[in-house]
Amino acid sequence: MKIVIQRVKRAQVSIDQQLHNSIGQGLLLLVGVGSDDSQEDMDYAVRKIVNMRIFSDAEGKMNLSIKDISGEILSISQFTLHADTKKGNRPAFVKAAPPEMASNFYDAFNLALQQEVPTRTGIFGADMQVELINDGPVTIILDTKNR
């Protein structure tokens, strides 16, 4: 899994110019499922995301997790995180999971997150418009294959 984690003041996703979901303070996740991702990858990602201390405490140090601040998550599927740009000018997406596998994996990932933190999502495979107010900005890239 490749996940871009962004600390946000607020975020929202619209589909066909209609608001689909929104959150207040929390994390916006752009989630790419790879063809070789496993339950172990999912468990690792969920554990890291809900416990990562990237929110400021009273002294201004990044010392609090999303759980500590009672924040929310907006999770957006994004297969393009698995783009291979080594050859030519058109990205290849052969490392991205096939749509059915990715959809099921993404749904399970979001259910696991929901058990820990209020989690909202976009719609898998939809053309979405995502808006956010970055907080910091703090942006972290999590690759479950690099641990």
Automatic annotation (TrEMBL):
<dbReference type="GO" id="GO:0106026">
    <property type="term" value="F:Gly-tRNA(Ala) deacylase activity"/>
</dbReference>
<dbReference type="GO" id="GO:0043908">
    <property type="term" value="F:Ser(Gly)-tRNA(Ala) hydrolase activity"/>
</dbReference>
<keyword id="KW-0820">tRNA-binding</keyword>
<keyword id="KW-0963">Cytoplasm</keyword>
<feature type="short sequence motif" description="Gly-cisPro motif, important for rejection of L-amino acids">
    <location>
        <begin position="136"/>
        <end position="137"/>
    </location>
</feature>
<comment type="subunit">
    <text>Homodimer.</text>
</comment>
<keyword id="KW-0378">Hydrolase</keyword>
<comment type="similarity">
    <text>Belongs to the DTD family.</text>
</comment>
<dbReference type="InterPro" id="IPR003732">
    <property type="entry name" value="Daa-tRNA_deacyls_DTD"/>
</dbReference>
<keyword id="KW-0694">RNA-binding</keyword>
<dbReference type="GO" id="GO:0051500">
    <property type="term" value="F:D-tyrosyl-tRNA(Tyr) deacylase activity"/>
</dbReference>
<dbReference type="Pfam" id="PF02580">
    <property type="entry name" value="Tyr_Deacylase"/>
</dbReference>
<dbReference type="GO" id="GO:0000049">
    <property type="term" value="F:tRNA binding"/>
</dbReference>
<dbReference type="GO" id="GO:0019478">
    <property type="term" value="P:D-amino acid catabolic process"/>
</dbReference>
<protein>
    <recommendedName>
        <fullName>D-aminoacyl-tRNA deacylase</fullName>
        <ecNumber>3.1.1.96</ecNumber>
        <ecNumber>3.1.1.-</ecNumber>
    </recommendedName>
</protein>
<dbReference type="GO" id="GO:0005737">
    <property type="term" value="C:cytoplasm"/>
</dbReference>
<dbReference type="InterPro" id="IPR023509">
    <property type="entry name" value="DTD-like_sf"/>
</dbReference>
<comment type="function">
    <text>An aminoacyl-tRNA editing enzyme that deacylates mischarged D-aminoacyl-tRNAs. Also deacylates mischarged glycyl-tRNA(Ala), protecting cells against glycine mischarging by AlaRS. Acts via tRNA-based rather than protein-based catalysis; rejects L-amino acids rather than detecting D-amino acids in the active site. By recycling D-aminoacyl-tRNA to D-amino acids and free tRNA molecules, this enzyme counteracts the toxicity associated with the formation of D-aminoacyl-tRNA entities in vivo and helps enforce protein L-homochirality.</text>
</comment>
